[in-house]
Amino acid sequence: MTSEGAGFPRYRPVADHAVLVEFGETISHEINDQVRRLDSALSAAPFDGFTEAIPAYASVLVDFDPIATDHQAVQRAIERLLVTNTQTPSKGPVREVLVCYDGELGPDLDQVAAATGLSRDGVIAAHMAGEYSVFMCGFAPGYAYLAGVPGAIQLPRKPSPIRGVPAGSVIIAGPQCIVTTLTMPTGWWRIGRSPTPILGSDEKRPFLLDVGDGVKFSRIDRRAFDTATARS
Question: Phi, psi at residue 214, to the nearest 5°?
Fold first, then answer.
């Protein structure tokens, strides 16, 4: 059971080949620990017919072969795992991500400052002070959703998205933060840009950030950003 109450974990059938296991409805470390615990348990002791587990903020989508098993059997297998495996996986390493907040690299900084009542430097200081963890990956290659944005700079998404946001943009919305990996639209607030490569060529670990990793943002100036970008 999580801090969400007696209604969790909750099991929902998805098509004929998956069960969605929900541990809550909010973004929290306690709930995400439950997600990571089940993901780790399935990896260590998969049930017959198991094919894949996809962790999210507060849930795990458990995919299975419908020829080998069914929703009821999968739910029973998961329930047994949750009883027998009570150890939360250890945290991953803390990854350093460089970020430049200068000029046009942080085009929404002034708006965030105005909305939160902070100065531009105050927004930057708050962002750097956050304790960030990768809670889930998805949407695009290498897209790591970080929880840990301080309450002082938490804002809802914009009413409409902006197109053509460049890769490497550091964006925030609510308690979440992302370093984008592709040029695409976003309705999140663009507060800086990073030259740190998130996508790599290692087949075993193609992305810098993985679920469970911590992230530390380190500020650099425009000259250092341009130098690092030229090298990548």
Answer: -95, 160
